[in-house]
Specification:
113 residues; alpha/beta; Cathepsin D, subunit A, domain 1; three-stranded mixed beta sheet; 3 helices; 5 strands; 24% strand; globular
């Protein structure tokens, strides 16, 4: 699993999901989806099989849990499964801040005096 602060969706491909399911007691209920997902700078959507919901837990010792929807990409991709920005923030893996710093220039300091 890879945390990806640029991703808007949690994504896993069919092959990796099948591999993961082989170690689980219950099969994942993949349902159809109308979602259209586009990879960065690509004009065509990523082919999707469907989606599923799963409860995930942070391994950072925080005990944070979240129910997340994963999109299932058709066939095999070269990418590891991705966790979206929102899911990472919910699990405490990323901390978002809104900070700005004004660069002082000679002109701006003169207008304030």
């Amino acid at each position: 699993m890879e945390a990806n602060s640029c991703s808007t969706a949690n994504i896993i491909d069919e092959h990796k999901l099948e591999k993961l399911e082989s170690s689980l007691q219950n099969k994942t209920a993949v349902r159809p989806t109308d979602t259209r997902l586009f990879a960065f700078a690509q004009g065509e959507p990523v082919p999707l099989v469907g989606c599923f919901d799963v409860e995930i837990e942070s391994i950072r010792g925080t005990g944070s849990r979240s129910t997340a929807t994963f999109l299932v990409a058709k066939e095999t991709t070269k990418s590891r499964p991705l966790l979206s920005l929102d899911t990472c923030a919910e699990l405490g893996l990323l901390h978002l801040t809104n900070a700005t710093q004004e660069k002082k220039t000679e002109a701006s300091s003169q207008t304030r005096n």
